[in-house]
Amino acid sequence: MKEGKLFVLSGPSGVGKGTVLKELLRQKKDIVFSVSATTRAPRPGEIHGRDYFFLKPEEFKKGIEENRYLEWAKVHNHLYGTPRDFVEKTIQSGNHIILDIDVQGAKQIKEKCPSGVFIFLAPPSLEELARRLDKRGTDSCGEKKTRLQNALREIEEKKGFNYVVVNDRLQKAVDQIRKIICQEEGSS
Ligand code: ADP
Ligand code: 5GP
């Protein structure tokens, strides 16, 4: 059976990865979302198993020891990781999968899965990124500062990606990513 393709969507916190993906997955039902594990606390409305697997630090670390993550990284003071089994089984069963992960994780995946497709979602400007973090209203002042400081470093990494999409107008960014995925599916 033909294997599915692995897609990675990365970019700074607050750029709109979650929002873009939600809309993309609503429009395109033949791609599976990889639910990550994290040690950060759930935000209002987030559901364990749908948005993230919310784990205690000791549970997460046990997963590292048992090699249960395809990649993992410390992002903005919390641990995040991609459960390996789910990704491998999805691809082996011929389905496409998309990961929403930070640039450190994307680098690790690129080494392990060079045939993956790596998409960087960029903000129209740093000012707009700060506005979006404010608008989301889920992060403390300190968290927002960390996320903005990290954004500068993360944006420098965009050159390592196959595609860069600017999330200016939401629907335009979704359309661009959908087209990239359809094109890459066709070439697989
Ligand atoms: P990320 O998953 O990258 O951390 P989110 O999806 O949580 O980012 O989006 C951060 C904030 O930006 C949210 O309030 C979201 O509604 C808003 N947002 C996302 N995309 C756009 C856009 N194209 N234009 C304006 N606001 C946006
Ligand atoms: P948030 O806390 O805003 O949901 O996510 C913070 C950052 O962690 C985002 O950049 C998101 O893409 C990233 N992230 C989410 N899941 C994973 C993962 O499994 N691995 C890595 N490396 N980063 C992740």
List the helices and strands and how they pair.
Elements: E1 6-10, H1 17-27, E2 31-33, E3 36-38, E4 52-54, H2 57-65, E5 69-75, E6 78-83, H3 84-92, E7 96-100, H4 103-112, E8 117-122, H5 126-136, H6 141-156, E9 163-166, H7 170-187
Parallel strand pairs: 1-7, 1-8, 2-7, 3-4, 8-9
Antiparallel strand pairs: 3-6, 5-6
The chain binds adenosine-5'-diphosphate and guanosine-5'-monophosphate.
Please tell me about this protein's structure.
The longest helix is centred in the C-terminal third of the chain and has 18 residues. The strands form two sheets. Strands 2-7-1-8-9 form a five-stranded parallel beta sheet, with helices on both faces. Strands 4-3-6-5 form a four-stranded mixed beta sheet. The mean pLDDT is 95. It has 188 residues and is an alpha/beta fold. It is built from seven helices and nine strands, in the order E-H-E-E-E-H-E-E-H-E-H-E-H-H-E-H. The two termini are 13 Å apart. The protein is globular and about 50 Å long. Helices cover 45% and strands 22% of the residues. A hairpin with a 2-residue loop joins strand 5 and strand 6. Helix 1 crosses helix 7. It has one domain: Rossmann fold (3-Layer(aba) Sandwich), CATH 3.40.50.300. The chain binds adenosine-5'-diphosphate (ADP) and guanosine-5'-monophosphate. Adenosine-5'-diphosphate (ADP) binds next to helix 1 and helix 5.
